[in-house]
Design goal:
Number of domains: 1
Strand content: under 5%
Oligomer: single chain
Shape: globular
Order of helices and strands: HHH
Helix content: over 70%
């Protein structure tokens, strides 16, 4: 999966820092003024995790 702005933020906030998806939503809303739904971020995070498992 490509490393776009949302995926990079999700990877950094949720996986590297261990924070919740709600924190990622707040970050995207405050920094980039993006309004993203929780379900969309959950699906993207699952894709990121599946891609990492496939590589490992």
């Amino acid at each position: 999966m490509e490393k776009d702005l949302i995926n990079q933020s999700l990877y950094t906030i949720c996986l590297q820092n261990g924070k919740s998806i709600e924190d990622a939503i707040q970050y995207l809303k405050m920094k980039y003024k993006l309004d993203v739904e929780n379900l969309v971020l959950e699906k993207r995070l699952n894709k990121i995790l599946n891609d990492e498992k496939a590589v490992a």
